[in-house]
Specification:
By secondary structure, this protein is an alpha/beta fold. It folds into three domains: 198 residues, 3-Layer(bba) Sandwich (FAD/NAD(P)-binding domain); 76 residues; 67 residues, no CATH class. Helix content is 36%, strand content 24%. A seven-stranded mixed sheet has the order 6-5-14-15-16-13-17, sandwiched between helices. Helix 1 packs parallel to helix 4 and helix 2 packs across helix 7. The chain binds flavin-adenine dinucleotide.
């Protein structure tokens, strides 16, 4: 871990390329993690944020893997509210218990972004709060009402609703739902996180229930008009009482935007659809892209090229996950039988400590690398839902044909 106390393991600011000027537009999570990563390889970073405060109002549940906590470093560690050893996957009364490698962390998302901003400032970033960017052009110019400034690289992290990436012609249409969170004084006390795929409790996502200190946090997702009604169903199903404020926002379920860059401007985070298609989680893909890009820059790659390569790499991974997520969404019975087969084959227990919470896309690889339990799992799934398994394999392996 570097002396700065943050965790991407890059060289100190003094060792990197001396004159690289980077603008980051948007101080949400992806803008902040990218700022920290670029500072660490010696770039001079200007961070533009239209609001005067970061992280606020809260919208995100803040569940991440140990890898993400390690990569963010000190700001993440000082924002930890809870840790869970595993997840109980449920659907229509069937259930299995999964223990990801390193467990799952619940972060205080407002505090996280405040801490990351403080870290960026202490490492020399020029922080421009209340600075609305009106345009970012492919030649690397960032325009504000005060005038234009030219950069070697512009990282555009203006979020799912940002207008700037659209003005550059990067306007993809990912699948999206409205996700809602609420805290309750009374409810269940699960050992880990309950992830309930029962169709009546969500639409295209799942319901989640977890204990956070002395409250129970629950949430769900669905179309904007019915998200609230779905949350009320979760409340009834889990006996949740004493609700505090409801908060949430748009959850993007993929696929990511193709080639999200124009000249020196590279679009990142939610603005580029860099979210995990099964859960809508955006912290892992942004951390992955920033860490990888910084490593390339550190090894001498030109910064624009490094970011394009990193975003492409993460997007390719997410596109593959999107096919799996869609296969499961289109056939709820497949998900139900997968959960049942994970439990009855013993594979769920066999995978304990093997897969990172943010890397559920590695499940097929883990299935193959455990020949006995993996074969038992596939045989049980094929027996329970043969057509579903075949359709899913076709969708994943030959998406154009299926
Ligand atoms: C209900 C819910 C639950 C979630 N749970 C999880 C979870 O458990 N784990 C996980 O990993 N992810 C989760 N996510 C997703 C995660 O919150 C997002 O992927 C992430 O916050 C996106 O960060 P971002 O920086 O890309 O975008 P944003 O957070 O939207 O930030 C964009 C920033 O750009 C600024 N901006 C926009 N336009 C301009 C402009 N013109 N000039 C200057 N500034 C501008 C905005 O003010 C904003 O601060 C959840 C999301 C929701 C809605």
């Amino acid at each position: 871990m570097p002396a700065t106390g943050t965790g991407t393991g890059m060289t100190s600011p003094l060792e990197g390329p001396p004159h690289m000027r980077v603008a980051v537009v948007g101080a949400g999570f992806s803008g902040l993690i990218s700022t920290l990563a670029m500072l660490r390889v010696g770039a001079r970073v200007d961070l533009y944020e239209e609001h005067r405060r970061v992280g606020y109002p809260p919208h995100c549940t803040g569940l991440v893997s140990e890898w993400v906590v390690d990569m963010i470093g000190r700001p993440a560690r000082s924002s930890i509210l809870a840790w869970y050893p595993g997840l109980e996957l449920r659907v229509n009364g069937k259930a299995t218990w999964i223990e990801p490698k390193g467990g799952v962390y619940k972060l205080d998302r407002v505090r996280l972004e405040e801490e990351m901003l403080g870290e960026a400032e202490s490492q020399g970033a020029r922080i421009l709060l209340g600075a609305r960017v009106s345009r970012a052009t492919p030649d690397g110019t960032v325009h504000t009402p005060g005038g234009g400034e030219r950069y070697d690289l512009v990282l555009l992290a203006d979020g799912a609703h940002g207008a700037l990436h659209r003005t550059l012609g990067i306007s993809h249409t990912p699948k999206k739902v409205t996700g809602l969170n609420a805290h309750y004084t009374t409810g269940p006390s699960p050992q880990g996180i309950i992830v309930d795929f029962t169709p009546s409790l969500h639409k295209d996502l799942f319901a989640w229930i977890l204990r956070v200190q002395d409250t129970v946090l629950a949430g769900t997702g669905g179309p904007p008009a019915s998200a609230r009604r779905l949350l009320e169903r979760v409340e009834r199903a889990y006996g949740l009482e004493g609700r505090n404020t409801i908060y949430g926002g748009t959850v993007l379920l993929g696929p990511p935007a193709p080639r999200p860059w124009r000249g020196k401007v590279v679009v990142i985070g939610d603005a580029a659809g860099l979210t995990k298609p099964l859960t809508g989680g955006g912290l892992y893909p942004s951390t992955q892209a920033a860490t990888h890009a910084a490593r390339l820059v550190d090894n001498g790659a030109p910064p624009v090229d490094a970011w394009r390569r990193s975003v492409s790499r993460v997007a390719a991974l997410l596109r593959r996950q999107y096919r799996v997520a869609e296969a499961l969404r289109r056939d709820p019975r497949l998900l139900e039988e997968t959960i049942a087969a994970l439990e009855s084959s013993g594979l769920a227990r066999g995978l304990a400590g093997k897969i990172d919470y943010d890397r559920h896309d590695r499940l097929p690889l883990e299935v193959v690398s455990r020949p006995l339990k993996g074969a038992r799992f596939l045989a049980q799934l094929a027996y329970r839902h043969p057509r579903g398994l075949l359709r899913a394999l076709a969708r994943v392996l030959a998406p154009g044909w299926a």
